[in-house]
Amino acid sequence: MLDIKLLREQPDFVRRRLASRGAGDEAHVDELLWFDEQRRKLLAEVEALKAQRNRVSKEIGTLMGQKKFDEAETKKKETRVLGDRISSLDKQAGDAETARQQLMLRLPNLPHESVPLGKTAEDNPVVRVHGEKPVFSFQPKSHIELCETLKLVDFARAAKLSGSGFVLYTNHGAKLERALIQFMLELHTTEHGYTEVSPPLMVGPQCLEGVGQFPKFADQYYAVQEGLDATTLGKLYLIPTAETPVANIHREEILPERQLPIHYCAYTPCFRGEAGAAGVGSRGMIRVHQFDKVELIKIVKPEESPAEHEKMVANAERVLQLLGLHYRVVLLCTGDMSFASVKTYDIEVWAPGQGSYLEVSSVSNCEDFQARRMNLRFKTDNGENKFAHILNGSGTALARLFVAMVESCQQPDGSLVVPQALQPYFKADRIAA
User: Which residues in 32-167 belong to E strands, given as ranges?
Assistant: First the structure.
């Protein structure tokens, strides 16, 4: 969440940066500051009344020692009145704090000054392009046709099992998916210096709140219920990304400065209900409810986060470079950024069968926004506690990478050439027609 001190001291700056997102969140700043001021006034009054009650209590002791019992009883009544008033004001202060906190949790992060102004993805500038679009001597097929012909994916049976938006990998398709995951994990752990973790696939709502997915987007994820016990519904959620558990590993901790930076990578399936909003069918792999992803997380000192952000983008790009795929990197404009991010790069790979680019990685610097929500700090060498900066990125996501690779590697005879970097994991150089 945002720093309350920044909101108090620079409300116009906060309004301006929120307004650049185009979602109207700046309208909530005044309301939030009103609750904040009410809370502070109420707490100040409570402290004054408590001091008054302490003085009266001492007077009661003195009067009792002087055997002035009637006067002492009058003072006792006064302390009871003060106590009732204190309890009432404490409740009002608590209510104001709750209201302020709920508004704080719903305010997005402030876009960095270097982020271009814009409203939609059409306003995202292209930062760089790698390679050339593949040229075919034949009409390239879509991944749907290739996967069905080569029996890589069974779309119909996946729909029979789980409905639309799910994928059943089969035979060489399942092996190819596994090879991609192994390839990416090995790359990030051996060449890029990340530590692999394998987190739980279900987390409590505090983890979703910590990374900024709750409360604003609570309607987009899968809540879990234990058997028939409805009281357990919502105590755990299927993770929408490995970012959710991995970024929270050190929540509510104070890390020694020497432990930073921390670089984690993790493979997990990801579950997203909002994928059903549009574009999901019984066939195809562009928008699905469940997909695999290798996620990258960095926990760093504030002054290091801009450079670490650029490095993380390069780490994700390296995956596509080694697979020989054409892609571009775009910088998201203010209106297209995620809730928790101050700056985000998207990596979009070319899918010939679609005739379009597909996003396979989104790499974000969230600065201290998530760390404040999960109370993750580090202690500097001089003993000061500071909030860490947290970065996340897909390194990369499937199934869109699978789609782009299959469509890019197709041959005139209908077979697929397996990229050289993937062959040690797939154990073959081709999938025959």
Answer: 126-130
Q: State the DSSP string of 266-327.
A: EEEEEE-GGGGGSS--SS-SSS-SEEEEEEEEEEE-GGGHHHHHHHHHHHHHHHHHHTT--E
CA atoms of 259 and 379, how far apart (whole Å): 10
Q: How far from the centroid of its chain's Cα atoms is residue 237's Cα?
A: 14
Distance separating alpha carbons of residues 397 and 410, to the nearest angstrom: 21
Which residues are within 8 A (CB) of 289 and not within 5 positions of it... i.e. 6 or more apart?
162, 165, 166, 271, 272, 273, 275, 276, 280
Residue 119 CA to residue 37 CA, distance in Å, equals 33
Q: Tokens in use for 329?
A: 């990197």
Q: What is the DSSP letter of 28?
A: G
Contact between 121 and 375 (Cβ < 8 Å): no
Instruction: Identify the bridge partners of residue 300 per DSSP, sorted by sequence position.
Output: 389
Per-residue pLDDT of the chain (433 residues; tens, 9 = 90+): 999 999 999 999 999 999 999 999 999 999 999 999 999 999 999 889 988 888 877 887 887 777 777 777 787 888 888 888 898 999 999 999 999 999 999 999 999 999 999 999 999 999 999 999 999 999 999 999 999 999 999 999 999 999 999 999 999 999 999 999 999 999 999 999 999 999 999 999 999 999 999 998 888 999 999 999 999 999 999 999 999 999 999 999 999 999 999 999 999 999 998 644 444 444 578 889 999 999 999 999 999 999 999 999 999 999 999 999 999 999 999 999 999 999 999 999 999 999 999 999 999 999 999 999 999 999 999 999 999 999 999 999 999 999 999 999 999 999 999 999 999 999 999 999 9
Q: Is 24 left (phi over 0), alpha (psi -120 to 50) or beta?
A: left
Kindly give the interhelix angle for 305-322 and 172-186, rounded to the nearest 10 degrees.
Answer: 140
